[in-house]
């Protein structure tokens, strides 16, 4: 038996009876649906806020690009300024120390000349010639003044030169005693003179040699450091690469190939860095060339002059000792041979092969050989007469000719060294300032160029 279908209620929706629950109550909407939609909207809002605050956001990235570009530009400029100022300082130190070394050797030469003059005059006996007395006084005064002027050198922390200055006064006192006894014909005068000469060597010349060595070593370190500073330029190019990366990123992000202000700033800084690197490298090359040419030449000739002065004293003592001066003759030979080697080194450093000074030294050494031949042959008086002669073809004239030419050569070398180093010092100092200005210009242009893109996003 079949049941008849129940008709729907009037006004009710079709199929409502089918959707009704078994209890007959109408279906209620699910309470989770509205809350789920609201949660999703909240999460989306939070994500939008995070995107605004995150550095991955384009405006934030642009701000970061500005900071990176400005910082890189400033660092390149600061590095260029550091290179320029450091090279300039080192070149100034080299020039000052180089002049100090030459001054020390000149002071040493004056003192040795004084000793050589007084020993040569001692051979004459009695009252020495006025010109020799004047030469001795002038050389000793110049040597003492040089020690006093150089006493505060930073390369003499133990104040050796101050002690040497005191010993110069002791030397002068012994020389006066030797003279006084020699004028009266007392043999003890020779003992005083020998004591004075030995005291000069140990108490004055030795400390000067120590300070010369210390100063020359410090100068060599400064010369080496001038070239080492150039290596910092590679860091500048690494920082410039950062600017190029910023340019590429900006072109991709803004869909524009060129950001004119940033490009101009980068090119200005690149050009300044390239020119600055060339100047720094050229400065280092100039320092190397100066070191191996005029600087070495001035040292070599100055040392040869000083050695020749010592040899002149030894020449006189070979006669003062009368047959027992063999040790002084050996010292003469050693000193003149070393002086000759120094002069050959100076000619090689000059690059012109000029051996005029060597020839002048050899001429004097040949004259000395004549003195020794007379003395060794038993003609002591003849040897003394030749050694003290003031004739144009005498040993003294040959020695004076060598000293005059060597002094002129030292002055020429020293002036060339100072001019070369001072010119390079000025150039590298200007280069550092130019690089610093270029870095600031690049920083401003990068800030303005990238800032325009940032304004577009705003």
UniProtKB/TrEMBL annotation:
TM ranges: 62-85, 231-251, 263-284, 429-450
Keywords, in A-Z order: Membrane, Transmembrane, Transmembrane helix
Start-end of Low complexity biased regions: 15-27, 33-47
Region feature Disordered, mapped onto this chain: 1-56
Highest taxon in the source lineage: Bacteria
Protein name: Secreted protein
Lineage summary: Bacteria, Bacillati, Actinomycetota, Actinomycetes, Micrococcales
């Amino acid at each position: 038996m079949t049941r008849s279908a129940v008709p729907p209620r009037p006004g009710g929706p079709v199929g409502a009876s089918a959707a009704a629950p078994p209890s007959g109550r109408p279906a209620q909407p699910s309470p989770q649906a509205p809350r789920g939609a609201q949660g999703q909207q909240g999460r989306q809002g939070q994500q939008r806020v995070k995107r605004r605050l995150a550095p991955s956001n384009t405006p934030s990235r642009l701000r970061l690009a500005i900071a990176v570009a400005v910082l890189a530009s400033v660092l390149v400029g600061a590095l260029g300024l550091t290179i320029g100022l450091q090279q300039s300082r080192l070149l100034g130190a080299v020039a000052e120390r180089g002049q100090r070394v030459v001054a020390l050797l000149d002071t040493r030469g004056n003192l040795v000349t004084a000793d050589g003059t007084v020993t040569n005059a001692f051979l004459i006996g009695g009252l020495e010639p006025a010109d020799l007395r004047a030469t001795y006084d002038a050389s000793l005064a110049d040597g003492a003044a040089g020690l006093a002027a150089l006493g505060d050198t930073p390369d003499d922390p133990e104040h050796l030169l101050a002690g040497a200055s005191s010993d110069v006064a002791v030397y002068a006192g012994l020389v006066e005693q030797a003279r006084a006894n020699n004028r009266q014909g007392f043999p003890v005068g020779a003992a005083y003179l020998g004591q004075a000469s030995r005291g000069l060597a140990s108490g004055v010349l030795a400390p000067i040699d120590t300070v010369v060595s210390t100063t020359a070593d410090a100068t060599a370190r400064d010369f080496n450091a001038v070239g080492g500073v150039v290596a910092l330029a590679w860091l500048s190019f690494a920082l410039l690469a950062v600017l190029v990366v910023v340019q590429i990123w900006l072109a991709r992000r803004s869909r524009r190939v060129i950001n004119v202000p940033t490009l101009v700033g980068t090119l200005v800084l690149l050009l300044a860095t390239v020119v600055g690197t060339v100047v720094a490298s050229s400065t280092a090359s100039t320092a190397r060339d100066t070191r191996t040419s005029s600087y070495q030449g001035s040292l070599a000739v100055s040392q040869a002059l000083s050695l020749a002065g010592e040899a002149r004293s030894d020449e006189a003592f070979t006669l003062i000792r009368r047959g027992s001066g063999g040790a002084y003759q050996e010292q003469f030979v050693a000193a003149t041979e070393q002086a000759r080697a120094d002069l050959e080194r100076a000619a090689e450093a000059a690059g012109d092969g000029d051996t005029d000074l060597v020839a002048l030294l050899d001429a004097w050494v040949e004259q000395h050989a004549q003195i020794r031949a007379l003395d060794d042959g038993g003609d002591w008086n003849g040897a003394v007469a030749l050694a003290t002669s003031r004739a144009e073809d005498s040993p003294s004239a040959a020695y004076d000719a060598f000293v005059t030419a060597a002094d002129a050569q030292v002055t020429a070398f020293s002036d060339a060294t100072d001019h070369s180093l001072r010119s390079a010092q000025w150039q590298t100092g200007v280069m550092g300032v130019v690089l610093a200005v270029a870095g600031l210009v690049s920083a401003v242009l990068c800030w303005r160029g990238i800032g325009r893109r940032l304004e577009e996003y705003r």
